[in-house]
Design brief:
GO terms for molecular function: RNA binding. Strands 1-2-4-3 form a 4-stranded mixed beta sheet, with helices on both faces. Strand 3 (72-77) and strand 4 (80-84) form a beta hairpin. The longest helix is centred in the middle third of the chain and has 14 residues, at 30-43. It has one domain (4-84): Translation Initiation Factor IF3. The relative contact order is 0.25. The chain starts with a helix and ends in a 12-residue tail after the last strand. It has helices spanning 4-14, 30-43, 58-69; strands spanning 21-23, 45-50, 72-77, 80-84. The chain has 96 residues and is of the alpha+beta class.
Length: 96
């Protein structure tokens, strides 16, 4: 579980990132979760964009993604979700 200080640190790191994944009409599926897990292993921190035509609300999508990928939900702002998962082999971010 992340502390408030760690979440603030990760939010500042994520500010300059662009969303890599988009959740659209079909919602969250197993294939997407697998791809996001792989990307988290490579990057540790990433953004996911929830499109206007997504049938689920952004909080539900954020919950499904964080549970499915076993990642920490850093922030949901607007239609963007920020996820963090410590990499096992490619550790780049050291938390305060």
């Amino acid at each position: 579980m992340l502390t408030g200080k760690q979440k603030r640190f990760l939010r500042s790191k994520a500010h300059h990132l662009n969303p890599i994944f988009q959740v659209g009409k079909s919602g969250v599926n197993d294939n997407m979760i697998t791809q996001i897990e792989d990307a988290l292993e490579a990057r540790e921190l990433l953004k996911v964009s929830v499109l206007q035509n997504c049938l689920e609300d952004r909080d539900t999508v954020a919950d499904k993604l964080s549970k499915g990928t076993h990642a920490e939900l850093v922030q949901v702002i607007g239609n963007t979700i920020v996820l963090y998962k410590e990499s096992t082999e490619n550790k780049q971010i050291s938390l305060p």
